[in-house]
Amino acid sequence: MKKKIDINLMQKIAAENNLSETAFIELPTKKILFFTPIMEVDLCGHATLASAFIFFNFIDQNSKEINFQSKRGELRAIRKDEKIQMELPRDFPKPSEDLDLIQSSVNSEVLELYKGVDDYLAVVDSEDEVLNLDLDFEVIKTFDSRGLIISSIGSDVDFVSRWFGPQTGVDEDPVTGSAHTLLTPYWAKRLNKTRMEARQLSKRGGNLSCELKDSSVLISGKAKLYLRGEYFS
């Protein structure tokens, strides 16, 4: 954004957009903020990807790297051919004792349950179960978390997932890069590999290339421009 605007106006713009997240970049500080339709969140992967795409294509076309300053620290994005690689802070899955609560919202058996900084991670048996969930969103709204990730081993990728966050105003997110900061460490340990291919099985869906580092997760993806315009307040 060329001109500073206050937090309340950012939230109103995000509500008007009614997308999973809207990102705002402050220049020249490169500070980045993320808003769902109803609240601010600390981290969003696909909004970081989109912001890097805008920066590389419309703000500094000669740049191949940008370091955004977020409430989760530095978020690095590097332009690599047609893809953009993000370096996001890794999460650390911790076993959770809230299995009964999570199980009450899911129509499949939860085999393992973990909690990260933002989300619960529930592991189920198969990709079919992830695809055919019948969730109780009213129960999920009561969770003390940003959202709920449901994941399993994939049939033709390393792992698959879906993300749900009705408590943030987003029943289901199409592709959740930030959730993969929790998913990648879990599956890296489970599969004994640090580089993996993932797929999010929402209606729109999306593929992600993930790599685990000591303190970060590298996630690569593509972005496309679909709209340009101006806001009037």
Please report the first level of CATH classification, the CATH class of the largest domain. Answer: Alpha Beta
Structural class: alpha+beta
Number of strands: 15
Q: CATH architecture of the largest domain, please?
A: Roll
% residues in beta strands? 25-35%
Q: How confident overall, as mean pLDDT?
A: 94
Q: Helix coverage percent of residues?
A: 10-25%
Notable traits:
3-stranded antiparallel sheet; 22% helix; 12-stranded mixed sheet; alpha+beta; globular; 6 helices; 2 domains; 15 strands; Diaminopimelate Epimerase, Chain A, domain 1; 233 residues
Secondary-structure map with pairings?
Blueprint: H1 7-17, E1 22-26, E2 31-35, E3 40-41, H2 45-59, E4 65-70, E5 73-80, E6 83-89, E7 94-95, H3 99-103, E8 112-115, E9 119-123, H4 127-131, H5 137-140, E10 147-153, E11 159-165, E12 170-173, H6 180-191, E13 195-200, E14 206-212, E15 216-221
Parallel strand pairs: 9-10, 11-13
Antiparallel strand pairs: 1-2, 2-3, 4-5, 5-6, 6-15, 7-8, 8-9, 10-11, 11-12, 13-14, 14-15
